[in-house]
What we know:
The structure holds three protein chains of three kinds. By secondary structure, chain A is mainly alpha-helical. Chain A has twelve helices and four strands, in the order H-H-H-H-E-H-E-E-H-H-H-H-E-H-H-H. Chain A has one domain (2-226). Chain A has helices spanning 2-32, 39-59, 70-89, 99-121, 130-134, 147-169, 171-181, 183-188, 193-215, 225-240, 245-265, 270-284; strands spanning 126-127, 138-140, 143-145, 220-221. In chain A, strands 1-4 form a two-stranded antiparallel ribbon. Chain A has a two-stranded antiparallel sheet with strand order 2-3. In chain A, helix 3 (70-89) runs antiparallel to helix 9 (193-215). By secondary structure, chain B is α/β, with parallel strands linked by helices. In chain B, the strands form two sheets. Chain B has a six-stranded mixed β-sheet with strand order 6-7-8-3-9-10, sandwiched between helices. In chain B, strands 2-1-4-5 form a four-stranded antiparallel β-sheet, with helices on one face. In chain B, a hairpin with a 2-residue loop joins strand 1 (5-14) and strand 2. In chain B, helix 3 (96-108) packs parallel to helix 6. The radius of gyration of chain B is 19 Å and the shape is globular. The model of chain B is unreliable at 264-271 (pLDDT under 50). Chain C is an all-alpha fold. Chain C has one domain. The chains are: A mainly alpha, B alpha/beta, C mainly alpha. The interface between A and C is large, with 43 and 41 residues.
Amino acid sequence: xxxxxxxxxxxxxxxxxxxxxxxxxxxxxxxxxxxxxxxxxxxxxxxxxxxxxxxxxxxxxxxxxxxxxxxxxxxxxxxxxxxxxxxxxxxxxxxxxxxxxxxxxxxxxxxxxxxxxxxxxxxxxxxxxxxxxxxxxxxxxxxxxxxxxxxxxxxxxxxxxxxxxxxxxxxxxxxxxxxxxxxxxxxxxxxxxxxxxxxxxxxxxxxxxxxxxxxxxxxxxxxxxxxxxxxxxxxxxxxxxxxxxxxxxxxxxxxxxxxxxxxxxxxxxxxxxxxxxxxxxxxxxxxxxxxxxxxxxx
Amino acid sequence: xxxxxxxxxxxxxxxxxxxxxxxxxxxxxxxxxxxxxxxxxxxxxxxxxxxxxxxxxxxxxxxxxxxxxxxxxxxxxxxxxxxxxxxxxxxxxxxxxxxxxxxxxxxxxxxxxxxxxxxxxxxxxxxxxxxxxxxxxxxxxxxxxxxxxxxxxxxxxxxxxxxxxxxxxxxxxxxxxxxxxxxxxxxxxxxxxxxxxxxxxxxxxxxxxxxxxxxxxxxxxxxxxxxxxxxxxxxxxxxxxxxxxxxxxxxxxxxxxxxxxxxxxxxxxxx
Amino acid sequence: xxxxxxxxxxxxxxxxxxxxxxxxxxxxxxxxxxxxxxxxxxxxxxxxxxxxxxxxxxxxxxxxxxxxxxxxxxxxxxxxxxxxxxxxxxxxxxxxxxxxxxxxxxxxxxxxxxxxxxxxxxxxxxxxxxxxxxxxxxxxxxxxxxxxxxxxxxxxxxxxxxxxxxxxxxxxxxxxxxxxxxxxxxxxxxxxxxxxxxxxxxxxxxxxxxxxxxxxxxxxxxxxxxxxxxxxxxxxxxxxxxxxxxxxxxxxxxxxxxxxxxxxxxxxxxxxxxxxxxxxxxxxxxxxxxxxxxxxxxxxxxxxxxxxxxxxxxxxxxxxx
Lengths: 298, 271, 321
């Protein structure tokens, strides 16, 4: 019972940041048809900027809870500034080109952005534990649970529900859904697709950076940090169905719980199990478990 | 003489839609058959079933006495039935000559070992040049296929279908996308080339003048059924054909007038 | 014989012979060892080139690279076999064999799904190796000193020369064979499948089988390359042999080289390796920056890769089959 609870909470915690990152990846894919390897760089940039700011604020005498303001600042700055710059210079010129070529171009972009991190922030790891001290711990079922981890679960719920509401309840969201359903039809209906693309790319970048910024206080932020997450969020997105928000949530939950189980019970299969599931989904249901509805074209 | 192609009672349904309904056709060697019908009447479905792209829900297709129902396209091609496409299917980044060379190379391949022979060998090159001349596309020999004019691309498509020296060729709308002035030139080239090769031809066509000029026999489709199977002189004045097929075609009015002259009544004209 | 008339084969033979002779008599040791590493990678890139010409890009060929490398390393560690005439063919066979089995599934996929499924399979192997303590987990383990015809080499310098000549011979052989393959009917199916699968089926050839064959070939070549790499580095570990970044690197060198010729992977890999050496000297933290920037430049401005510059300089058209 205790074990099941631990697996559940660890799995949820792990799933929550994966979900936030994968959500950004999946909406960019759903709308722009770009599988963005550089998404891992937004994540890394978010983490670095957050860790850096937390350190700065802390030396300025800001309280532990106050340093948490670094998280939204980092996510928005990286997403909006870096996201805009990249969309305007590179991504804009890739729309409509071969999907595989686009992946390669974003891979190139990923490598460039990773190295710029090193040039800007140096090679030494950053530690920014202050926000985690600010969160009280809880006893759930007799087991101590880290408050910061629980706050991450709450945040992912909020982000998930907010995204769903934006897509389904607002004018903008409906434009986006129309484009996901049928790009050509959306253009024919007079929707300014390029503008929607730009906004969605930036929104996706903010989500990627937010995932990184939120996870930063719980780890040491060091070079090569975006490499693992990008391929993990690929797995999440492939499992759930590329372009699907619900799919990203289910995919993240599956990967999170599976991994928490593996770590506690069977450490040898920790990574293997994630990719085995990814391969299995690709083999038996290549469009993913929850692929979004599409106009059928023949 | 036994028929070269025998289609018996085939049906094809896609969910609730019936694309073919109890089709029975028997084709003799060297016949030239025109397949007519409005869009969605089941013409292409018929071609797709005979060439293995679709499997009939029920019924059987026999080629030269052998059951080929549900066989893969590549096996049916190897047995001797080939086809062209409404939208020409060529290798767009290769030159016209290379398109024919690759096609000939594949057609000549019978095993892994023969597939490892070099593509450029004298025998194949001569045959490719012969096809270029026969289909009058030798002026475009070194042009990349994606740059070809529509008519040349169609001819290349048909020439590629003929590399395997099939005994039956199905042409899916050989003149679609071709201007009215060029249609007859194109069909003259195609039909004289095919006569030279001695192949049984079934072709889907919307232009009744072309049907009238080139075919021995007409199959008229309507809602997945064959509503008329007769020589053009009879089929093109058949009231059912006029109502359900020709009425939709551009030359409908002219055909209706012809029919009215023939039967001596004006009933079939628009009320 | 017609092989003597084939200009590409004559060119390859002269080129590899010249590189081998220069290496043995002129080149300093550091350049020798870089060329060995470059040509080992070039064998894998040659495999990816066959796929690329078919319109397929794999983001998971580190699977076969790693399989080749670990096969060589494990034969030494568990069976005491260090004879390269056994270990290298074994690396090729293991990678080709796994490629053959996975090929039955992979041949059904195209484009992004092809790339992703390969990625998933390679990450499965990565996940296993990282957690396998008997194989050193993330640290990996070292490779036994190789022998040729049962004879070992006494000094590191001699080992290097033997390896160098060896990779020149194997590279030449692989390039000639792949060139001959691309000139064959089966090779011409690359263009055919990439351009129009429907037409290929209606010419009487199975697209799935054509792709499967090319996939096995690329897997085997990549395995051979991985095997050589293990011997050259004297060490195998998951991060530098199997992780997705290795697959990315292989694809990068493929794009850098260009699809125009079987010589291109060798030239491209050498440029890549030299670039790495100088770049890390001048700008220690800028290696990925240069790789990534180059990748973007090539995609936007030089889609034919380095080979298109070379062929232009030699004043001939791209040698498509």
